[in-house]
Every structure is written in C-alpha cells, then in structure tokens.
Amino acid sequence: MKNLLTKRISSLILFLFLFQVSFSQKIEKQIDSLLSTVYNDSNGPGGVFLVSKKGETIYRKATGKSNIELDVDMTPENVFQIGSMTKQFTAIAIMMLQEEGKLNVSDTISKYLQDYPNGNSITIHHLLTHTSGIKDFTKMKLIMSIAKSDLKPKALIDFFKNEPSDFLSGEKFKYNNSGYTLLGYIIELVSNQDYKSFIEEQIFNKIGMNHSYYASDSKIIKNRAYGYHGGKAYKNKFDVSFTIPYASGALMSTVDDMLLWQQAINNNILISQETKEIVFMNHSLNDGTKINYGYGWHLKEINSVKTREHGGSIFGFKSMAVYVPDLDIYVVGFSNCDCNSPTVLVREIASVIIKDNEKNK
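That's the Serine hydrolase domain-containing protein sequence above. Prediction below.
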C-alpha cells in the first residue's frame, strides 16, 4: 500500500513537472513569435527581453547585434541607455529624501531656486506628475544648439526657465522632461551629492545593480550595446552630452538589473510601503480629475488588469517596462536602435502572461 502511494505521488510530481515544462515552452514560443515580427534582421540592431513572474525569470533572450560593425551578437547581459525610464529613479530618489526629512513634495520650487519664474506656484509634486506647466526643453527649437554641450544642471535650467508656461500648474497633465531636470537639481541641493553619485551610491550600489550607470560614451563599459538610427541604412547614433538628458533620461542598465530594481520596489528596500502607495497613486488635477500617472510611472491597464509602466527614448535606444502588481509580473525590453520601439511588444508580452495566468487559475 505504501509503495502504491509512493508511486502515485511520484507520478503526480512527474505530471506537474512535465506540465510546467510544456507551459514554459508554450510561453517561450509565443514570445519568440512576437519578437520575430519586429526583430527580423539577425545582422541588424536587436534587443533584449526579460519576463519575470513571482520573482522567477521565465523568459530571457537577446536578438540581433550589439555592435553591427564588429559583428557582435546581442546577449542578455548587454548594457543599454534606458532614456526616460530614468525618471523612475529620480522619483524614488526624491521620495527617499522626503523620508529623510530633507524635502517635502508640497514644497514650492522657489524654496530651492529663488529666482525661478512663478516658482511659488509650482511644487515638487507638480514636477513629479508632469502637471507643472513648465515648457519641455526637448521640444524647444534651440535644443540642438546645446545637445553636445556639457552643461551644469543650473545652466540647463537657465536654458528653459524663462520660456512661457504651457498652462497654470495643476491644471493639466503634459509629459515634461524639464520638470525632472529640476528634480535632479533639487536632489543635488538637498543631498550635497551630484545626481550621478546619489543614484549610483544610494540606489545602484544599495540594491546590487552592478551593471547600471550614469551614461557615458567615453567610459569603458563591459557589454555595452551600441546605439543606431534606422532608415534606408543603419547609422551610428547621434552623440549627445549626457548632461542634457540628465535626471530625465541619462541612465544605463541591463534587464537583469532592472529586475533587481523592480524587486527592490516590491520589497520596500528604498522607501516605505506608505510612501510607495503615494508613488503609485493616480494623482489629481486642480479640478479633481484623476490622471494616469503617479511619481515616475504611468498607471494603466492591460486586459482590465492594472499596470505600472514607463518607456524611454534617447538617440539610438528605446526601452520599455511593465509591472503587473496584482500578479507580480514584470516585463522589460531594450532596443539598440531608435527605429525599433519595444513598447508595443512589451505590452503584448505582458498580455500573453496575463491571459495564461487567467487560464491556469
């Protein structure tokens, strides 16, 4: 009787194992098929994609070339510029400083920049939520005149601060890189560290993001993916001084490090649960209208399931990540050509995982 029971248990374990293998292979094929619709040139720029469910990596693949000229294949370990995904780190840095009592999101920016126009009516909260009304400097006609210039944060702020406001603070939501530039400078003022040092020491080092950096084209970075522009023929990316994207878009990372980042957020390593709830709250305009943005993340839905997501775009690179908090699903994708946005792909992959989760309840 005991032997029969043992055999049945063994058979059940084997069945569950084979079912899990079959399930994993099915998911892998579905994701491979999605990627092949965009990344169909094995000799061109490529991308890296990672999917995690409940802390376990269930998909991690690279496609295409990390360097076309040297004919180097992409690997999952490649380091990419992540563009506006940088805003997540800037927002969390601000909230870390709030928890330390060094600032408050209700502070007006005139507390830190006394000469900023209308600074008494614009708060840190407005900067975090893209509701400040400040002109986005990346949309200014003269932006290319400073693109290669190494500017101090204050000089970059001076470039746009006297531009007319798009609207009164709190009246509308309008995505805005200038606001996150101001946040980076405020981080420097209250922490007595430059933005690069604060992010690398207080965040990257603290949670083991050992392959993440403030971007540099001169520093030797192991496993760097080189950036390209598309069109009739691929071209090397346009060079830009990383003092320009700064706190709105100047970081580099890997998909594995980004998973560490997501796990640090989940486990309240950097900020408390109470603060985290504020970060991921649908904040409101002056008239009470809710916006689909927290602090550094878009708050959306896929298949009626709530998501936290953000993409990034910078010369030669595009990035995207989606987190599904109710299911603990994380999907992140990087591309080393700004001709191939991973945004739709990452959301489609997340949709596949969500649907399979529903089927297997």
